[in-house]
């Protein structure tokens, strides 16, 4: 059984912990650099990206996160996590880690009151809450799925980014795709 961490400083980390457990992984809350030791994968959840950046700095997590990502283990970055992982952030401009060769626009699918659900162009159930929009992708970025022709699920090496919240969709396709299936399988969310 794999141990997959979820950055648990702010935002919607609890539902990712549940989704990982459903697909048979041991889900671990990550609050400091030591929590990354021995993990087989990592989730950067949705939430508020500027707040998450401040809390990552306060916990001195950035070097450890960079080392983890550089180690090649799978990383899933959803919504605010995608913003943190991007090379370039606009709307407004913001610091990011540069792990995915994409430019994203913060909250481009609308404010909280404009949250919505839909189907991807491949039929995946999507939940958008103050979601970023991917404006451009670099040559090394694979577009896994789209929504109305726009990329919403991407992969570059070991890092996967989603504009939407797969942990809220009631299904586990994204978590299974990124981390595989653990030893024990549960019931779909």
What does the model show?
22% of the residues lie in helices and 31% in strands. It has 189 residues and is α/β, with parallel strands linked by helices. Strand 11 and strand 12 (159-162) form a beta hairpin. It contains five helices and twelve strands. A seven-stranded mixed beta sheet has the order 2-1-3-4-12-11-10. A three-stranded mixed beta sheet has the order 5-6-9. The two termini are 19 Å apart. The protein has one domain (3-179): Class I glutamine amidotransferase (GATase) domain (Rossmann fold, 3-Layer(aba) Sandwich).
Quick structural overview:
By secondary structure, this protein is of the alpha/beta class. It is built from 5 helices and 12 strands.
What tags apply to this protein structure?
189 residues; alpha/beta; Rossmann fold; three-stranded mixed beta sheet; 5 helices; globular; disordered C terminus
């Amino acid at each position: 059984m794999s141990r997959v961490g979820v950055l648990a400083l702010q935002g919607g980390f609890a539902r990712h912990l549940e989704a990982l457990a459903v697909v048979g992984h041991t889900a671990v809350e990550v609050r400091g650099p030591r929590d990354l030791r021995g993990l087989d994968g990592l989730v950067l959840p949705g939430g508020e990206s500027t707040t998450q950046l401040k809390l990552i700095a306060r916990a001195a997590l950035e070097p450890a996160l960079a080392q983890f990502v550089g180690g090649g283990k799978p990383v899933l970055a959803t919504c605010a996590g995608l913003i943190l992982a991007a090379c370039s952030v606009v709307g407004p401009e913001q610091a990011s880690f540069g792990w995915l060769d994409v430019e994203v626009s913060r909250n481009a699918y609308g404010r909280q009151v404009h949250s919505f659900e839909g189907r991807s162009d491949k039929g995946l159930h999507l939940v958008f809450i103050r979601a970023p929009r991917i404006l451009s992708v670099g040559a090394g970025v694979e577009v896994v799925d789209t929504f109305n022709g726009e990329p919403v699920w991407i992969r570059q090496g070991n890092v996967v980014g989603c504009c939407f919240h797969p942990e809220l969709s009631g299904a586990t396709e994204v978590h299974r795709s990124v981390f595989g299936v653990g030893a024990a399988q549960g019931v779909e969310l």
